UniProtKB/TrEMBL annotation, chain A:
GO molecular function: electron transfer activity; heme binding
Pfam families per UniProt: DUF2231, PSCyt1
SUPFAM superfamilies: Cytochrome c, RNI-like
Keywords: Membrane, Transmembrane, Transmembrane helix
Gene3D superfamilies on file: Ribonuclease Inhibitor
Identification of the protein by name: Uncharacterized protein
Naturally occurring in which organism (per UniProt): Allotamlana fucoidanivorans
Domain Cytochrome C Planctomycete-type: 182-241
Annotated transmembrane regions: 17-35, 47-70, 82-100, 112-133
Occurrences of domain DUF2231 (ranges): 14-138
UniProtKB/TrEMBL annotation, chain B:
PROSITE patterns in the cross-refs: TAT
InterPro entries per record: Alkaline_phosphatase_core_sf, DUF1501, TAT_signal, TAT_signal_bac_arc
Family annotation (PANTHER family): BLL7424 PROTEIN, DUF1501 DOMAIN-CONTAINING PROTEIN
Annotated protein name in UniProt: DUF1501 domain-containing protein
Domain of life: Bacteria
Biological source species: Allotamlana fucoidanivorans
Length: 463, 497
């Protein structure tokens, strides 16, 4: 196809705008004729020729602009032809109707009240058909009937799957995104940029600007390049006004192209799948709740009253809510705050125990914390991270924590602890990391315990 | 308004009669003007006009933005900014195939029509310059590091390399500004200010955001807008700690003043400022008051935290002998660790001198000598204290350097020009994958061929690690809401643990 000048396409794009003028004028002519039948409103009829004339002129312009638009080649040929011929025929009939009406065409047989109304009815019918075809071209042929009440929704139902691994990547993950964000402009009827996402063949055929999908190389695939562009860029997809793809959606499409080599039948289990991808896919398919990391589930706890927090802050504790409105907190007692409120650390901690379930992270560093204090801290049942370095904790204190069921990380560097605490550490079954620099724990004993399954990673000096 | 004056009014009769006149006239003037100003202010910017409302609320519900959006991984960050643009080709991005290309003109297909700088764009040839430094693989992660950084090679299993960084800027000032603020022109808030604004302070005695610059730095100048607050409230600006006797200027009491009545003076000043604040509602007055009080507390907290003399010898040995010389990169790294321990959220370190247009191999070695040991020491030190779990460490410059030689190429010597299209940086600690390398460049380290990471993506990821959705931390200014990432940025999920 020869290159169409940009200016022609520019004008052509006014077709969808101009096309509404003849619709309005001609329908109005029909209404004038209809209401003019009543003897009291006869005067209305005298405006019919004028409305027909305007209808004809604007229809003619719409035809020319429509032809220009069709040169872009973005539309399916057979449907385009129907729209084209109906448009032209309608315009010609409007011209005839006007000529008859103003007696330029002496067909007196036709110029009676009856024929007038029937001719105008014919015009309205033709208009509707032309308009319908036009609508199908822009919006797709199922646009009008998609939400038609009382009809069976025609929907491709995928068989139910039990876990993410069973999902066919294209059908379950990529296809729904394409359906939602791309297909309204890139289908077999309306091929913007010559591109259709209707089926695998047309996807691999690509569009006017080259390969839309390069198997195994997302960064070379036009599809990914376009959605990653600056949103202000002319080539950004979807175009302005349409909903852009979310990060997770882009992630999924990249995964399909890169990891599944744009294969249409690969399952998640068959290709290399990172944990974050698996998580996104699970969320996408409704297996998991939103949130970045799947192991992060915050405990459900009751809210803390403001005055309780204020009293504890007067004791020197700093609070930070870890997630807005989650009611779980990080609590820090800086050593320079020790002179606030009660001087005694035990009393401070007893007060803190009022919200023991709400504390997820606790930092009491360099504060002369002893084993007795750990007994109180052990009651903080949701505690995941305990940072109590540079204190006076001994092996006995750690033994108290043996049965704590949620502790993940323990920082006890520079305390009076020895190899004997390793046994206690082994009992904390969720514990993952222990920082034990500047303690009497020796490499040798540690090596013995590191063999055990479930023993946490213990970090001594790192040099 | 007048009831405030009662507190301050003196019993002197003359003064009272004077004040009466003063008051009447000014009452009318101030009420009309003041209300007018407040009304105008609220028209222009509703958030700011009422900014003082609730600013004294306790920390746990101060946050009007609904932050954090998700569970944070990072509590604090130290950003080791290597100003000038370190050569990725001579440090981390190993390109063995270049040896066969020595001296050959860089193919146009690689340059891809890119507009080069005026410094090398007019050269008759662009000869390919393979690195003259030797590379080896280290650690379990088998990461490539050149011989310039022997200490860093010991900790590669804690690092997360991004080999596919990209920026929009090819010159220093716009590129550094872009990295710090998300925009190439000065005036936007820096990363640290955004974090301070969004998450608040962990230690009321020290600034949330502190900047340290290595002393005797040569090269492109650094300026305060790089750690500026932009349009965010002033108390969120970075505070620069200088090397030497006075880490913070004007913090010490002047000679012959013992400072005993300082607190009283500030309280009185605070009351005056409160009156002014009630009349005008300008948030800058609030910021000024906050900062006076911060400065007062810093009179004791700063000397304490900047004094490294209580550190044991083995720590100084770990950071290298420079660490005893205040103001060096090594000393700053050590001080940074102390600041982080005390609850400073963002320590922004700058080290200048990575702009190797000429004498690249020697220059890279020289700067590495000044920084390598301390950088690695910082990682080790944070790790043994258990702080690497919730501290994010970032190392990187504003852009990379070209594969072709700027100026003459010999066996041993070459120069490299600025290169924004591909360069390497690394992160470590809180929430990023240890012993991991992300992204790939072509055989010339010129173009990114896999997983590009733009500066905006880096910012989005950084905020994500602090529990912030970069699209939701906004500030309305001059009629529109601004973000650190503006309208860009994707969180690079593959980097996260």
């Amino acid at each position: 196809m020869t290159e169409v000048p940009d200016f022609v396409l520019f004008l052509g794009r006014f077709h969808p705008l101009v096309v509404h003028l003849p619709i309005g004028f001609l329908f109005f002519a029909f209404l004038l004729e209809w209401f003019g039948k009543h003897p009291d409103r006869k005067a209305l009829k005298s405006a019919v020729p004028f409305a027909l004339f305007l209808g004809f002129i604007t229809a003619l312009i719409a035809c020319v602009l429509g032809y220009m638009l069709s040169l872009s080649g973005d539309y399916e040929v057979s449907m385009l032809d129907s729209h084209f011929y109906f448009g032209v025929v309608t315009t010609v009939i409007v011209l005839l109707a006007w000529l008859i009406r103003v007696d330029k065409l002496k067909l007196t047989v036709l110029n009676t009240a009856k024929s007038n109304i029937s001719l105008l009815t014919l015009i309205v019918v033709l208009l509707s058909i032309t308009g319908h075809y036009g609508g199908n071209l822009t919006h797709g042929s199922d646009y009008l009937t998609k939400y038609l009440p009382f009809t069976q929704k025609e929907q491709k139902t995928l068989p139910k799957i039990a876990k993410v691994e069973d999902a066919v990547i294209f059908d379950y993950l990529a296809q729904p995104i394409i359906e939602e964000k791309c297909i309204s402009c890139h289908n077999s009827n309306k091929k913007k940029g010559g591109l259709s996402f209707q089926d695998s063949l047309s996807i691999f055929k690509g569009g006017k600007n080259g390969k839309v999908v390069v198997a195994g190389n997302a960064m070379e695939s036009e599809m990914i390049k376009r959605v990653l562009l600056d949103p202000k860029h002319d080539d950004f997809m979807p175009p302005e006004g349409k909903t852009p793809l979310t990060e997770d959606e882009i992630f999924i499409l990249k995964y399909w192209i890169d990891n599944a080599h744009a294969n249409f039948s690969s399952k998640v289990s068959a290709v290399k799948t990172s944990d974050s991808m698996k998580h996104i896919a699970s969320v996408f398919l409704g297996f998991e709740k939103m949130g970045h990391n799947k192991e992060v589930t915050l405990p459900k706890v009751s809210p803390v009253e403001t005055h309780v927090l204020e009293e504890l802050m007067a004791e020197g504790f700093n609070f930070r809510e870890l997630v807005f409105n989650s009611n779980v907190y990080e609590v820090v007692l800086p050593n320079y705050n020790m002179d606030k409120g009660t001087k005694d650390l035990t009393l401070k901690l007893q007060k803190l125990a009022n919200l023991k379930s709400n504390i997820l992270w606790l930092y009491i560093e360099d504060n002369q914390l002893t084993d007795a204090h750990l007994e109180i801290i052990n009651t903080f049942n949701n505690l995941e991270k305990l940072v109590v370095n540079r204190n006076q904790i001994t092996d006995k204190g750690l033994k108290l924590l043996e049965n704590h069921s949620n502790l993940l990380s323990l920082n006890i560097y520079n305390n009076n602890i020895t190899d004997n605490c390793l046994e206690s550490l082994m009992h904390m079954h969720k514990l993952q990391k222990v920082y034990a620099w500047q303690t009497a724990i020796t490499e040798e004993s540690l090596n013995k315990y590191q063999q055990e399954a479930n023993f946490p990673e213990v970090i001594l000096a790192s040099y | 308004m007048c009831d405030h004056h009662d507190i301050l009014r003196s019993n002197n009769k003359d003064l009272q009669s004077f004040e009466k006149q003063f008051d009447r006239r000014h009452f009318l003037k101030k009420t009309s003007l003041g209300i007018g100003a407040l009304a105008l202010g609220s028209l222009l910017n509703t958030e700011k006009a009422w900014a003082n409302v609730g600013s004294n609320m306790p920390l746990f519900n101060k946050n009007k933005q609904g932050l954090p959006h998700h569970l944070p991984k990072a509590k604090r960050i130290i950003y080791l900014f290597q100003s000038g643009g370190p050569s990725q080709l001579d440090l981390f991005d190993y390109k063995p195939k270049l040896v066969d290309m020595f001296g050959k003109d860089l193919p146009e297909s690689v340059i891809g029509g890119q507009r080069l700088t005026g410094m090398s764009g007019s050269q008759s040839t662009l000869p390919v310059a393979p690195s003259s430094l030797k590379f080896k693989q280290y650690g379990e992660s088998r990461a490539w590091v050149s011989e310039a950084m022997p200490y860093l090679s010991e900790v590669v299993d804690d690092l997360c390399f991004i080999k596919s960084m990209q920026t929009d800027q090819i010159n220093h000032t716009p590129a550094v500004t872009f990295f710090q603020t998300g925009h190439q022109l000065p005036g936007r808030p820096s990363m640290g200010s955004w974090l301070s604004y969004g998450l608040g302070s962990d230690n009321d005695n020290l600034p949330t955001f502190i900047t340290l610059v290595s002393k005797n730095g040569k090269g492109q100048p650094l300026k305060a807008s790089l750690w500026g607050n932009g349009f965010l409230p002033t108390e969120h600006q970075g505070v620069q700690f200088r090397s030497g006797k006075d880490p913070v200027l004007y913090l010490n009491n002047p000679d012959n003043y013992d400072g005993n009545d300082r607190k009283k003076m500030l309280d009185y000043l605070g009351r005056l400022n409160n009156i002014q604040n009630d009349a005008y509602g300008d948030p800058e007055i609030q910021a000024r008051m906050t900062q006076y009080e911060m400065a007062y507390r810093m009179q004791t907290s700063v000397p304490e935290v900047t004094d490294t003399s209580d550190e044991p010898d083995h720590i100084f040995e770990l950071y290298g002998k420079d660490s005893r010389d205040a103001g060096t990169y090594a000393a700053n790294c050590l001080m940074a660790r102390k600041l982080l321990e005390k609850g400073v959220k963002f320590v922004q370190l700058f080290h200048q001198g990575w702009d190797q247009h000429i004498g690249c191999p020697g220059g890279v070695r020289n700067q590495s000598r000044k920084t390598d040991q301390a950088t690695a020491a910082l990682i080790k030190d944070l790790k043994q204290r258990g702080m690497l779990d919730d501290t994010l460490v970032v190392w990187g410059g504003e852009f990379g350097r070209t594969v072709y030689s700027q100026g003459q190429l010999t066996d041993k010597n070459y120069g490299r020009d600025h290169h924004p299209k591909a360069f390497t940086m690394w992160m470590a600690g809180a929430g990023v994958k240890p012993g991991f390398s992300y992204g790939e460049t072509d055989d010339f380290s010129y173009n990114v061929v896999k997983d590009p990471v733009h500066v905006h993506d880096f910012h989005a990821t950084l905020l994500h690690l602090f529990g912030i959705d970069h699209e939701r931390l906004t500030f309305k200014h001059q009629g529109r809401r601004f973000r650190l990432t503006d309208v860009h940025g994707h969180v690079v999920k593959d980097l996260l643990t």
